[in-house]
Design brief:
single chain, about 280 residues, eleven-stranded mixed beta sheet, globular, four-stranded antiparallel beta sheet, alpha+beta
Length: about 280
């Protein structure tokens, strides 16, 4: 599992009369233009393990126990115990070190309460004396912000390399985080591929599933590179009125390999839903 969750961008809470006067979004995906169809779906692409990976039911007992113990330590916010599962020479696909992990965890646990970590082992493989695991971790919790209670649900798809009971390397294969607040936050269908090729065209559909009736919707979205500075300063999303029942965009991936965070927020009278997802750009 991974316990280093990024800081999530926050929408600018614009009073309703001012929001109605906005002409458009101030934070746009580079190269993205509006589209007018709402009936597309895009299946995510998973990196997966090697074809010869073994199923979870054949995993060594020590691997299963380490994953469970790491969940328990993270849920208990026991920083020293969590860091004990990470090698001093730990490497992360985002460039994080073990010290970065310590700081990130402290910030994350200070922000959210009632955290629960639950990791499922999907597959494993013995590679050059190490155990490679593919896992799916769900993190839930709550945050109080400006007298609002926000509910967090995060799903992380990870590949980790273990030496004994310590993780020496970790790769993020997929990540999606959702924050909701209000008595009736909108239910969103967030369609974005997990992986695209350089220069490839892709779709972003953020669809509100409930009937709109007479509700006014506000929304916005943001595209950022996955960098240390965007972990610490994730930016803000400006809100503007939307009338189509969601956000529908076409984007083109950059010309070089990269990892991006794509975030969207929808606000209606009953509450707010915010989603952010990783987009891997590969050659």
């Amino acid at each position: 599992m991974s316990v280093a969750l990024r800081s999530l961008p926050r929408p600018r809470w614009t009073p309703l009369p001012s929001a109605l006067a906005l002409a458009g979004l101030s934070c746009l995906l580079g190269g993205i233009t509006p589209v007018f169809a709402a009936d597309r779906t895009t299946a995510p692409v998973s990196a997966g393990l090697l074809a010869q990976a073994r199923t979870a039911d054949s995993a060594p007992a020590a691997v299963l126990e380490s994953l469970s113990a790491l969940d328990r330590a993270a849920t208990a916010e026991d920083l020293d115990s969590v860091l004990g599962f990470y090698s001093r020479n730990f490497l992360h696909s985002d460039g994080w070190t073990r010290n970065d992990l310590r700081q990130s965890l402290g910030n994350f646990w200070a922000r959210f309460s009632n955290l629960r970590y639950n990791t499922q082992l999907l597959a494993w493989q013995s590679v050059n004396g190490q155990i490679m695991t593919e896992t799916q971790t769900t993190i839930t919790g709550t945050e109080t912000l400006d007298n609002r209670t926000l509910t967090l649900e995060s799903d992380l798809h990870l590949r980790q390399y273990w030496e004994g009971d310590q993780i020496v390397r970790e790769e993020v294969l997929g990540e999606q985080n959702q924050l909701q607040t209000g008595e009736a936050p909108p239910t969103l269908m967030f369609n974005l591929p997990e992986q695209v090729q350089v220069n490839e065209t892709f779709n972003l559909d953020v669809i509100v599933l409930e009937p709109l009736e007479d509700d006014l919707l506000l929304g916005g979205f943001l595209d950022q590179p996955v960098r240390k500075e965007t972990y610490l300063d994730p930016g803000q999303i400006d809100l503007a009125p939307i009338v189509s029942g969601g956000i529908f965009k076409i984007g083109r991936a950059p010309a070089v390999q990269d990892t991006r965070w794509v975030s969207a927020v929808i606000v209606r009278k009953g509450g707010m839903t915010f989603v952010t997802q990783r987009l891997q750009v590969v050659e």
